[in-house]
Backbone:
């Protein structure tokens, strides 16, 4: 009897030992180390397994409908970045990861890879340093401390490099919407300049001033109420389109984040919120403040730079509208080429925030109001009426006189629509940094771009890809430029002060 008991105990101990060894050496995720510990701590990912190789704290994980880059930081906190990798529907081969302790590279093949460098050792935050997509290359431009917030872009179709001044972090990197040509970079630069008064809407990440990313979400709200709150795509209640087959709602006992608050024309106060629908889906929409236990808004700001802009845009290609720009990017509506929207601003460098009306799943006047996100690269502003009379008066040489630095200090505006800006040198494409094309258009105050409601707008398109768009007012002394919060004055150029700057 004692012998039988001993055999049973020995077998049990052996089984336990094998189980522990098995957990350490093999598991359903195919992970090891601190990344395994971080994933095990959250049962959300029990159905996932490795798609890529594991490189220390990094691995690309997969489920049937979802791929994501998983990262365990120095404190074994798990970070999940969905938009950093291609999703199953893209039908791409599994990526390879490379990690040397400072640089992470995500490689899909020898002609497509993206490299990120850690800001400081152990910080857990990574900035894009360079990327290659077939013949297109993007390289970070060195700054005083590491990389600056700008890149040099080149491709096989252009002889000169252009500059992309953008902050690109691994946490908000979007591989699907990443530019793939110099022309796309120039378009993104122009759209950013065009929407300077409407950047980072409908809200920025709490405490950072940047747009949302999984590492810097907005203010976490934990309502004291129970139950659910109806969620609409726009702050207009039943007049607005509602996702989830008209039943979208958020549970008040779960995590939800407040991006901003809005008071509509009927005096109703709404909160723009973000919440998780599943591990691969989020939603951004509007719920009544009272349903969330939030106070009513006393007054809705209409100041430029602090409220929505109104710029008519058109889709340049077939594209889509989503209410989830940060994770799943689920296509709620197909957007045919030529579809027109009123654009409320830019959510980030990937998405514009637009408004339209929909009926029976299509865009149509008289339908439900929808606010949503459309890729920036697929939109362009509707052409504004040109102002040749203003261009005729501006042709000549001008110098900065007072105010803020909204444009180059010296501008030689030629009557043929070209310009030079002596003294405007750049790290990339020096000639392109000091010359380009210009034009003037009439301004409609309804666009809500400038504090002083100018008569015109001045657009400067530099040869190195940069763009400047400012409000323009002609004065007796010269002209004034304005943005949403400041201005700059220009007077005729005094050649006696700097004759070398005359016409470049």
Residues:
């Amino acid at each position: 009897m004692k012998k039988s008991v001993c055999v049973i105990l020995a077998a049990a101990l052996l089984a336990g030992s094998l189980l522990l060894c098995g957990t350490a050496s093999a598991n359903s995720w195919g992970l090891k180390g601190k990344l395994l510990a971080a994933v095990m701590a959250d049962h959300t990912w029990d159905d996932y397994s490795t798609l890529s190789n594991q490189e220390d704290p990094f691995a690309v994980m997969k489920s049937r409908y979802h791929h994501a880059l998983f990262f365990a930081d120095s404190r074994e906190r798990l970070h999940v970045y969905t938009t950093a990798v291609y999703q199953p529907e893209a039908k791409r081969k599994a990526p390879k990861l490379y990690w040397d302790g400072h640089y992470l590279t995500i490689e899909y093949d020898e002609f497509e890879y993206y490299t990120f460098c850690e800001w400081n050792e152990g910080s857990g935050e990574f900035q894009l340093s360079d990327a290659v997509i077939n013949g297109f290359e993007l390289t970070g431009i060195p700054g005083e401390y590491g990389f600056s917030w700008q890149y040099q872009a080149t491709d096989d179709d252009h002889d000169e490099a252009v500059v992309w001044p953008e902050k690109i972090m691994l946490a908000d990197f979007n591989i699907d919407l990443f530019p793939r040509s110099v022309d796309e970079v120039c378009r993104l630069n122009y759209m950013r300049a065009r929407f300077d008064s409407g950047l980072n809407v409908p809200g920025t990440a709490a405490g950072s001033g940047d747009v949302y990313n999984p590492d810097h979400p907005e203010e976490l709200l934990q309502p004291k109420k129970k139950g659910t709150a109806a969620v609409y795509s726009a702050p207009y209640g039943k007049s607005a389109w509602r996702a989830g087959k008209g039943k979208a709602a958020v549970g008040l006992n779960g995590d939800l984040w407040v991006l901003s608050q809005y008071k509509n024309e009927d005096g109703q106060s709404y909160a723009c919120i973000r919440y998780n629908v599943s591990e691969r889906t989020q939603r951004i929409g509007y719920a009544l403040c009272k349903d969330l236990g939030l106070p009513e808004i006393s007054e809705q700001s209409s100041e430029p730079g602090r409220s929505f802009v109104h710029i008519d845009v058109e889709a340049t290609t077939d594209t889509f509208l989503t209410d989830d720009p940060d994770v799943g990017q689920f296509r709620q509506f197909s957007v045919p080429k030529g579809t027109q929207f009123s654009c409320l601003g830019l959510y980030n460098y990937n998405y514009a925030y637009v408004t339209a009306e929909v009926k029976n799943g299509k865009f149509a006047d008289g339908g439900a109001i929808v606010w949503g996100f459309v890729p920036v690269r697929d939109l362009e502003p509707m052409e504004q009426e040109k102002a040749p009379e203003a261009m005729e008066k501006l042709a000549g040489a001008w110098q900065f006189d007072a105010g803020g630095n909204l444009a180059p200090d010296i501008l030689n505006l030629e009557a043929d629509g070209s310009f030079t800006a002596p003294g405007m040198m750049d790290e990339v494409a020096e000639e392109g940094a000091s010359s380009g094309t210009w034009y003037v258009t009439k301004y409609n105050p309804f666009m809500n771009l400038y504090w002083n409601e100018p008569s015109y707008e001045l657009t400067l398109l530099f040869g190195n890809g940069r763009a400047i768009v400012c409000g323009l007012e002609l004065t007796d002394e010269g002209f004034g430029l304005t943005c949403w919060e400041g201005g700059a004055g220009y007077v005729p150029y005094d050649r006696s002060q700097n004759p070398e700057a005359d016409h470049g």
